[in-house]
Write a sequence for this structure.
């Protein structure tokens, strides 16, 4: 059963259809989005390969295709295109629909400080747990990069991410064993906190947060570069 692939098709279908909506116009930044997905995804795929190699997580062949590269099924490679694309589309849609919905600068700074302190403490106390320590640190780094930028990206992203988490948990809950007999993706609990929301490891939140935020940061940079290039053409 190709459960993993079916979930990805379900996740990407609506964003693909409405990417060319005349009002949303997500397609105008497609060049930046594609470049960002490839660049950011490459780093996360490398981490995925290493985590799979060392048994931090793995995949149930019952639920994915027979195409496997570096021990990652085809669907896992597609994950870093499908999920970020759908999330970026949802972020842009929410910004378009609710243009005034954003935190103030001081609210954003307070939330960032709280998140960094909590993640820093968790990482410090769990350096022996690879998933917890590595992606907790990666998320702290992502927040740092976003905080030193001139844009107010985090002011909006903290809000849109709360909405993005809803479809994210729907997909990940199935991947981690909800509603089906076995897990699509299994986790070595000795390498994480062992805390789950439904069946989803709590670390998946920071994983998703950093993955999407890095893409948004790079897209913003690329949009600026491409716009300047267009002016001088």
């Amino acid at each position: 059963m190709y459960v993993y692939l079916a979930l990805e098709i379900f996740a990407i279908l609506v964003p693909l259809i409405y990417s060319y909506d005349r009002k949303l116009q997500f397609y105008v930044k497609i060049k930046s989005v594609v470049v960002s997905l490839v660049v950011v995804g490459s780093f996360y795929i490398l981490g995925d390969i290493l985590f799979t190699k060392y048994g931090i997580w793995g995949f149930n062949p019952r639920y994915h295709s027979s195409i496997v590269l570096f021990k990652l099924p085809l669907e896992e490679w597609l994950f870093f295109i499908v999920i970020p694309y759908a999330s970026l589309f949802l972020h842009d849609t929410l910004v378009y629909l609710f243009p005034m919905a954003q935190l103030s600068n001081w609210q954003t700074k307070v939330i960032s400080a709280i998140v960094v302190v909590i993640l820093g403490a968790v990482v410090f106390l769990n350096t022996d747990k690879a998933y917890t320590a590595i992606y907790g640190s990666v998320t702290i780094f992502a927040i740092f990069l976003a905080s030193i930028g001139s844009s107010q990206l985090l002011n909006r992203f903290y809000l849109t991410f709360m909405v993005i988490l809803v479809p994210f948990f729907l997909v990940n809950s199935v991947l981690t064993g909800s509603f089906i007999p076995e897990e699509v993706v299994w986790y070595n609990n000795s390498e994480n906190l062992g805390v789950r929301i439904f069946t989803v490891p709590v670390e998946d939140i920071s994983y998703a947060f950093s993955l999407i935020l890095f893409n948004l940061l790079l897209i913003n940079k690329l949009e600026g570069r491409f716009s300047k290039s267009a002016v001088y053409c």
Remarks:
- The beta strands are 57-59, 68-69, 72-73, 185-187, 196-197, 200-201.
- The chain has one domain: 3-232.
- The longest strand covers residues 57-59.
